[in-house]
Write a structure and sequence with these properties.
heterodimer, A: about 400 residues, alpha/beta, Rossmann fold, 2 domains, 6-stranded parallel beta sheet, B: about 450 residues, 5-stranded mixed beta sheet, 12 strands, globular
Chain lengths: ~400, ~450
Amino acid sequence: MLGWEFPPIKSGGLGVASKALAEAVAKQDVDLTFVLPSFVGKGVESEKAKLPFQIAYNNKKFNFKLLQNIKTTIYSPYLQEKDYENFMQKWSEESENPNKQIYGKNLFEEIQRYALEVENIELSEDFDVIHAHDWITCPAALRLKKRLKIPLVIHVHATEFDRTGGSFNQEVYKIEKEAWEMADKLIAVSNYTKGIVVEHYGIDPNKIEVVHNGKDDYVNPVNRKYMCRSDKKTVLFLGRLTIQKGPDWFIKVAQKVLKKRKDVQFLIAGTGDMMPKIIDEIVAKGFHKDIFCMGFLGKEECDTVFANSDVFVMPSVSEPFGLVALEAAQRGCAVILSSQSGAKEVLANSLQADFWDVNKMANHILASLEYPALKKTLVENANKEIENLTWERQAQKTIAIYHQLVN
Amino acid sequence: MQTHTKNVCFYFQVHQPYRLSETSFFEEEKSGDLFLGPKNSTNRFVFEKVAQKCYIPATKMLLDLLRKHPEFRVAFSLSGVFLDQCEEYGSLGGEVLNLFKEIAKTKQAEFLCETYHHSLAFLFSKEEYGAQIQLQAKKIKKLFGAKPKIFRNTELIYNNDLAEFIRKMGFEGMLAEGWDSYLNGRSPNYLYQSKKIEIHKEDARIAKKYKIAARAKKELPLLLKNYKLSDDVAFRFSNKSWEEHPLTTEKYARWIENTEGETINLFMDYETLGEHQWEDTGIFEFFKHLPKALLEKGIGFCTPSETIANLKLRDEYDIPQYLSWADTDRDISAWLDNEIQRSALHELSELEKMIHPHKKKKGKVIKNLLNDFRRLQTSDHFYYMSTKYFNDGDVHKYFSPYDSEHSPYEAYIHYMNTLRGMHQRVDSLNSPKGNIKR
């Protein structure tokens, strides 16, 4: 497997899904080597120690190869670190092209260097299949396929269409399209994503399998110190503050709800390039006592916020999957999804509206707060619905795809 | 009258609910109609569509068959809210109603009684239940000339208590699902009777208050649906993966011929003809030839009343729990299972308590309020809130699960919002200067 991030060091959606799938695959009858850039930066050394560098599951090997010359800290497009923010800010100042707010030239250079390193990597075992996660590993995957002459599976966690709302960065688009055409099989994280890959990239639908992401195994509700008011109803947004995730739509919906009910607080957890704009908007409209930006939260903090929220809203403009929606349902929130999401395929027990339908979103929130039976039924049924959506099951589907290719 | 040793008893259910208009927290109390249906599929639109596909062609076909075969019989139950829609929706509605009146004139058809609003009233208010049955009996008499004597409850919901209530009201027979777990190996193709039990005194008083006949009969005869033969047509007719597909008239007539018993009760939704089974499945051709094919095999036809008059009462049908004809569970879980359905029914019965003291008042305001309140009791609203087939993770196998129009949660939201508006209207009745827009 070729990846770019791996928790606990980095935990964007890509990292979480790649790690969970890799571990679940390795626990079954598969020898797995996971190739990653090496991690550098402040505090990373202690985190690195937690990585399971070589773990044996059922006598099967799960190896990590870290590419010493490649570093990910500031170049991953999924990071929420301060460094990255500064880096991005610099870029957005230098250019008016909104796409350049997302990717710097250096990232492309980095991706090519990663590809070269992977191509020349020392491999002692025989491999049957290459499994590459998202576009950043695509050039590397193609080179490795050429060298090893084995089938290539590319896992599409997100497309350039999702990240930019349709105004493609041509360079990224080119990398995606070329690699997807060359790959033997694509795994899309939802039918929604498969649709985009077919429609916007012209890829043959027969080459694409859908394997939804799995839920994490959440057991104990944590309840850490909580800084928000407990006498108010709480509505939560949790995600990167980027155009893709629709935080600006969340603000619009919040304002609409607040016109009807004053006993509601809106929390925004996460950070990203839209943070300043969001804060400006809240302050300018005088909602600073009703809508709070909490910044980036760690895992336990997230759990605490989930546990104290009544409703979780995912107003994404285009969301390939949306693991966070499953997390919210598992932690007891009524879930409201944008119709432009893959999560709705596995979470029918949610309320849904088009991301731009502020009126409907606000109505859904008000109904969830007004009618306790609604929230209770949504949460109970959502949890029943995703009971079997385990990574183990999704790994089995993935391995079945490997077998198809090898035989 | 020629006697046959075996008869087929056809009953078709004809019903259209008044689906709710979409609601919003942001509009002030609406003066508009609460029952127009969703914007992109209004009640009028649905009615017109079904009229073209089913009501008009199917009723014309049956009319022809009744005229052609004097032995042929059919029974209908037309819900009051369906009849209201016929009267509301212009010339097409009028045409549909006139066709049913033509059917009545043949004297070969029987019109059954039910609750006017196709309601779940029995579950929360016997007063409402009795009143709606009486309303329906009057409506049927007015439109089709004969007072109904046989009762069929909403979705064939049945239990011993309900049957006793119906007997006390003066009905001469009732329809029910013939379900294996209660038949215990017996055949549904005979005339059964309800189990006589004592019901609550207050309920007995209400049954008498709304009685439709001077005296109640000693027994309540029951016609039990033969669900296998009924569902062969209603559900499986066009199913190509069914081993018996295609179902020909001849094959079906032979099955009935080979079925033991005195009365084969074929009960189904009228929409089977042309709407659930589209015309191109051959459903009309199938029916057109059925009366002749059966008559040639010495099988006759009876209405429910004729069946009861002709046949000896057999065993008791003992149904302590609720039984219905819905889903594979055949209980009331399609309408009353999850928390949102229970919450909606609870709020509805709270509203009943508020409205009850006003029922005897005269005037348009009360009349409209009561009519809206009763339309909210229609079973369909609760059916839309069912999440039974929503939880198994294989939701994509079911039709339109991603279409938020079909979301049980949105059905609940619109229902609860509408109830809230009703509460406000009742509140303003109580205030001395009640100022009501509607």
